[in-house]
Amino acid sequence: MSEAAILFDLCDYVLLRNKCLCSAWLIPFTLFIDSQSKEFLDTHSLVTHGFHCKKGSLRTEHLGLHKALCVLMGWNWDVIPDNSRVYQMSPVPEFKGLKDDLIIWPPVVIVHNVSIGDKSITSEPTKAVTNEFLKGTLKEMRFEAGKVRVCRGKPSNQNITLVKFMPTFSGLQEADRLHKHYRDKKCGRKELEEVTSKESSGKDAEPQVEAEQLFYGYMGTMEDLDKLDPETKRRCVLKSKKEIESIADAPVRVE
């Protein structure tokens, strides 16, 4: 197995991401290549190896590993990695767009119920809100039965629910419709981060919260792999949303 291929195994991806983000990135990496192992002191060492490796037959794979790690960490892959580590301080402008473009496939919308585990929400009606409300929302939005499936996300996080769509272009369109539904209601990823930040800072939440305001949702992307249940994680891949859309929009050749 090549070093680049290791990165794109999704289970390893989540483990690698957590390892890379660990304090000071000083946990050693050991990669196994054709029964041989190679150890790297930290993320910087691995990125530098990926860029500077001159093995002819593996040059492309090493450059792919270098760029993938930079995308993973938000670093600039256009700056040569050296001991100054300048590349870590100057992320490329298109990084956020690239990160958002790599979606989980088949498409998944990740929905958070912020009433679960939130002691600041004391109203009984809001505490009683369950995923039945989410299923009712899907029905009101006229999502076709049998083409949308609701299931639990990561077992250790009970406030996450996954809305899974078909692995087709129409499935992507439906997932995008639900994503925009939450975004337009100010209940998207950005707003969830604000709510989470407010809770962690100890600020009081609103005393009365409408049921709809308890749900925050967004399209699952590369940074959301650790929110999936093991079975979904095992079966999914990462795909470029732009590439899928470009293929769907390609003109049909007339013979």
TrEMBL record:
<protein>
    <submittedName>
        <fullName>Protein SUPPRESSOR OF GENE SILENCING 3</fullName>
    </submittedName>
</protein>
<dbReference type="GO" id="GO:0031047">
    <property type="term" value="P:regulatory ncRNA-mediated gene silencing"/>
</dbReference>
<dbReference type="Pfam" id="PF03468">
    <property type="entry name" value="XS"/>
</dbReference>
<dbReference type="InterPro" id="IPR005380">
    <property type="entry name" value="XS_domain"/>
</dbReference>
<feature type="domain" description="XS">
    <location>
        <begin position="100"/>
        <end position="226"/>
    </location>
</feature>
<dbReference type="InterPro" id="IPR038588">
    <property type="entry name" value="XS_domain_sf"/>
</dbReference>
